[in-house]
Design goal:
Shape: globular
Strand content: 5-15%
Number of helices: 9
Helix content: 40-55%
Structural class: alpha/beta
Radius of gyration: 18 Å
């Protein structure tokens, strides 16, 4: 039974990279709240499977738009397709597959350049949604980031570096568009039970010549709550920040990590 109405029914939500992981969970969450949902991903088959699953479970209107958000033309195709399907944009979730693991001296220049396009530019280019939000009287942006914006993660220098740039862009944008009734926030998940997390744990296990089970056990020991989070828990936070229940929250990066981060700020 739902006790809190987030007031999102009828809104148009765009969720990037939504065929799996946190993006998929966010798309489902918006659909359950009664939103019309536009989703994109690079793989048409997986994208359409996700769209069918959302329609089947929620009866929501879903526009599945194949697009690679690491490319300028991909972002344009996604936004244009969503506006053509639903007439505008109210809510936006910038998201992209995480950059590959690696150390400062092991990653080549082209990997840094690809990471820049994937992690930073994919978010910046989605500013194409802002004119529609203004025309509709406001909106909300909730970007999916990582706990790496709070504390660096070993062997993830691309995420550690580039996501901080995204935070700077989001904080700046929040100040610029507040007058237009557009709020801009982000979520910083810790260890969440997704395929991406398994990939990172496997890479760490190979690097340290350990079993992945041992790596995962060590990770759980660091989390005060003793477990990894779920994609649905992150999605619940995203939908709350996108809703009018969070009407006075902007420029915030909200952690969701089971108490893992130990810093004061």
């Amino acid at each position: 039974m739902r006790f809190v109405d987030l007031g999102l029914r009828g809104k148009v939500a765009l969720v990037a990279a939504a065929s799996q992981g946190l993006g998929r969970a966010a798309a489902f969450a918006f659909a359950r709240e009664g939103c019309k949902v536009a989703i994109c991903a690079r793989t048409p088959g997986a994208l359409e499977e996700t769209a069918k699953a959302i329609r089947r479970e929620t009866s929501a209107d879903v526009a599945a738009i194949p697009a690679d958000v690491s490319r300028a033309d991909g972002v344009k195709a996604f936004v244009d397709g969503a506006v053509a399907s639903f007439g505008g944009v109210d809510l936006l979730v910038p998201n992209a597959g995480g950059p590959p693991p690696g150390g400062f001296e092991t990653l080549a220049d082209d990997q840094w350049a690809k990471g820049w396009e994937l992690t930073f530019q994919s978010t910046v280019r989605l500013r194409a949604c802002l004119p529609s939000m203004r025309a509709r009287g406001g909106g909300a942006v909730v970007a999916i980031l990582s706990m790496s914006v709070r504390q660096p993660i070993d062997n993830l220098v691309l995420s550690n570096s580039l996501r901080l740039g995204v935070v700077g862009a989001l904080k700046t944008l929040a100040r610029e568009v507040a007058k237009d009734r557009i709020r801009v926030n982000g979520v910083a998940p810790g260890w969440i039970a997704t395929d991406r997390t398994i990939q990172l744990h496997r890479a760490r296990a190979e690097k340290e010549r350990r079993r992945i089970e041992d790596v995962q056990a060590a990770v759980l020991q660091e989390i005060p709550m003793g477990r990894m989070g779920t994609a649905e828990e992150v999605a619940d936070l995203i939908t709350f920040l996108a809703s009018d229940r969070a009407a006075y929250i902007t420029g915030v990066i909200a952690q969701i990590d089971g108490g893992l981060y130990r810093g004061i700020f």
